[in-house]
Amino acid sequence: MATSSKIVLTPALTGEYSFGKLTEASAKKASELLQENHDNHHIFFNKSGFHNHIAHHLLTIYALGASPEIIQDQYDRNASYQRAPLPVDDKVVEDLHDSSKFSKYLQNERYYHDYLVFFQEEIDAKGYEEVINEYVLKSDERAHDMLVRMYSGFLHPIIHLGFGVEFKQPAIVAEALAQAAAHDKWLTPFFLESEKKAKASSQPSKSLVELLDSIRADKKLSSAAHWDDDNKIRDGILVRAKDEMIKYASQWTAKPEELEEKTAEMCNAAVYFTGGAQHPPKRVKFDFYYMHCVNCSIFFSAFLKQPWISSANKVRLLEWKSRLDLTMYASRHCPPPLLDDITNYQPREAGKSGSAWEGIIHRVFNHPDDGHVSKLVRAIAHGAQVCKPFEGSEKFRINGKMWLQLGNMAIDSVAGSENDSSSWVRSAGFDQAWEKVEDRPRAQL
Q1: Residues 322-356: b if buried by 16+ CB within 10 A, e if exposed
Q2: Between the CA atoms of 85, 88, 94 and 98, what dihedral angle is there, to the nearest 10 degrees?
Q3: Which member of 103, 278, 316, 394 has the lowest number of beta carbons within 10 Å of its beta carbon?
């Protein structure tokens, strides 16, 4: 049985999207390596806060049907550069049980292991569901603080939490909570002011694609982030156009009875602005930052299914995600999504089995990945499923065969890339982001 310190996967639990039949052998191998990662590695592989993606990666390829050999190979590739967690300080763990001292050690990777042990103890005593409700979703100062941190670091903590919830792994949940505790909270004013403005309005919600169009048309907001900003949301959008960003972000809301459609709308919009952010005649590439919006989207389907999360908190989680997606879009200079680049794309494996989902996933297994590509492909495939009931709505600009096109674009865009820097573009709305990207083959011009 899975516990706060033991990872146990079973083929019966397939998550929000799986491909093929999951095997006992793969479940055993993935559990073994996830346990090794849990016991021996820090959540950041360096002191600059670069994230350890092993849990994300292994759970994703496991769900996609990877063999034990593939799982081992991908683990070995990424375990090589991880670092050990710092020793636990029993006095710090004791302090964390005192609510008046809980915040004393936040936003410091030095205390990741201490927070991990603390949250494991809390989960042992209360269950992971109650711990998430108490420390993330409860409407008090500590939970507000932790919820903001969940969305920090380009969504990594809430992605991690999503995996824990999706696969019902208390140890992964404990990692996610401790990871969130190590992140910053400068997004607090944006989230809370957007929420306050939304609640004060009597206007119906606009669609995400309407708001993307409006943000792109707003010259002040669309140009607020500068190429040389260290962090284009913190130092660009929220400094030069904060009021404008809050104005648009607050115009997207959800009601409990709309959650299924609104979750699908978020998935669709994230794929729309991410997949469409191309720069002809340059080769197809995905924006590194936008990609995280897509990769995170699948977990809101998981949150939606949890009976222990209140409807009000499901709404809040989704609204915050969608508002941050809008902000992320604005922060990369608002490239216009080019739907023709999706519908007219010529896959590298066109006419071969490699261009179908099975072939795409097989190529994912063999790509030297740190987890980003596999998560992207799985999230796109999941989006195709959850958006299908809503095809035909003007809120859903990605539909039909475009999903498979996007799956091909995702794996094709990283094929042959020797390192992470050549796999993605960073800040796709800026011409500078594309300077080192080759032009497309003549057949795709």
Answers
A1: bbbbbbbbbbbbbbebeeebbeebebbbeeeebbe
A2: -20
A3: 394
**Cβ neighbour number for residue 284 with a 10 Å cutoff:** 20
Tell me the β-bridge partners of 439. Answer: 282
Nearest to 343 by CA among 276, 269, 423, 264: 276
Strand partners, 286: 424
Helix runs in 276-310, H state only: 288-297, 299-304
- Smallest CA-to-CA distance from 312 within 135, 139, 160, 442 is with 139
**Rounded distance between C-alpha atoms, residue 209 and residue 269, angstroms:** 6
Q: Dihedral (C-alpha) 171, 173, 179, 182: value to the nearest 10 degrees? A: -110
Helix axes 357-366, 372-387, angle to 10 degrees: 160
Q: How far apart are CA 91 and CA 117, in angstroms?
A: 12
Residues across the chain:
445
What is the rounded distance in angstroms from the CA atom of residue 409 to the CA atom of residue 348? 9
List strand residue ranges (DSSP E) for 250-328, in order: 286-287
For 207-258, the pLDDT digits (tens) are 999 999 999 999 999 999 999 999 999 999 999 999 999 999 999 999 999 9
Kindly report the pTM of this predicted structure: 0.97
- Name the nearest CA neighbour of 208 among 342, 335, 321: 321
Q: Phi/psi of residue 439, each to 5°?
A: -70, 160
Q: Which residue has the tokens 């949150």?
A: 303
Residue 364 CA, chain-centre distance (Å), reads 18
Q: Which residues are 362's β-sheet partners?
A: none
pLDDT digits (tens, 9 = 90+) for 392-433: 999 999 999 999 999 999 999 999 875 667 899 999 999 999
Task: Provide the sign of the torsion angle of the four alpha carbons 172, 176, 179, 181, taken in this order.
Answer: negative
- Model pLDDT for residues 73-103, shown as the tens digit of each residue: 999 999 999 999 999 999 999 999 999 999 9
Cβ pair 229, 235 in contact under 8 A: yes
User: DSSP for 107-172?
Assistant: S-GGGHHHHHHHHHHHHHHH-HHHHHIIIIISSSHHHHHHHHHHTTTTTHHHHHHHHHHHTT-HHH
